[in-house]
Structures are given as structure tokens and as C-alpha cells.
Design a protein that fits this description.
Layout: H1 14-38, H2 44-91, H3 104-110, H4 118-128, H5 132-138
């Protein structure tokens, strides 16, 4: 129990938090500093430091955006599991029979359906190839998801 994360204990991925991001910060800072020293010169060194600075800043941005991407991918997996569980609880059958016919966007839209309409909407989404907007338009008992990041 002591090793499980709590709300007060942050989780770190050492390679990301303590190696890649600090290295990208240092490289971006150094590249910006070096470029500012030669900015305005029309020579090869100025262009080289501009390129290093640009690549470092873009790389740092990508590293920061990866964090959000990981969180959203994890939420999508959890929503799929939630819809599977709800479908099973309501019908006693596995959702996996329908999953090859459903896109992730459809499953994400199905999470908003109330318990009374979920089984019928799953079947309709799979058979009629409904878009996520079409699924949401058919929902009568809309269950809002206030926990999505």
C-alpha cells in the first residue's frame, strides 16, 4: 500500500522529467543565448545558432505536448473500459462483439448515453455506422462527463 501513488504524491517518469526535459531546457536556453549574441549578422554562424535554437525550442514544445497526449490516450482507454463494463452490466453480454465495427470516436460518444439507451445505441452505431455526432444527437438521457481533462 505504501508504494501506491496518492493525490499528494506526484508521479515522475525519470527519463522524461529528469533527463529529456532538463536537457531540452538547457539546449534551448543556450541556443537562444548564443543566437542573440550573433543575431543580425548575415553569416553561417548566425544561421547555425538560429537553427539550433529553433530545433531546441520545437523539441522542448514536443516534449511538453507529449505529456498531454499520454493523458488523453490513457483517458480514451479508460472510457473504452467503462463503456465495456456498463454494456456488460446492462446486457450480460460482452461489448467485444461490436468493437471491431466501432471506431474510438463512436465509443467516446457512447459514454454519454444513459443506461436505458446504451445497448440500443451500441447496436445502432455498429450497424448504421453512425458518426459520433449522430450518436450524441440520438441520446435522450445525456450523461455529462465532467471529469475529462
Amino acid at each position: 500500500m505504501a508504494d501506491q501513488p496518492t493525490k499528494n504524491k506526484p508521479m515522475y517518469y525519470p527519463w522524461h522529467h529528469f533527463v529529456l526535459v532538463p536537457a531540452a531546457l538547457v539546449l534551448a536556453g543556450y541556443g537562444i543565448r548564443r543566437y542573440l549574441n550573433v543575431a543580425g549578422n548575415d553569416d553561417e554562424i548566425s544561421r547555425l545558432w538560429f537553427t539550433v535554437m529553433l530545433l531546441a525550442v520545437v523539441g522542448l514544445g514536443v516534449l511538453i505536448m507529449l505529456r498531454q497526449h499520454y493523458a488523453l490516450a490513457l483517458q480514451d482507454r479508460l472510457i473504452r473500459l467503462e463503456v465495456r463494463q456498463r454494456y456488460f452490466e446492462l446486457t450480460g453480454k460482452s461489448l467485444r462483439a461490436f468493437e471491431p465495427q466501432l471506431q474510438m470516436s463512436q465509443i467516446l460518444a457512447l459514454r454519454f448515453a444513459g443506461d436505458g439507451e446504451l445497448p440500443a445505441l451500441v447496436a445502432a452505431a455498429a450497424q448504421e455506422k453512425l458518426s459520433s455526432k449522430d450518436i450524441q444527437a440520438r441520446i435522450q438521457d445525456f450523461q455529462f462527463d465532467h471529469l475529462r481533462v
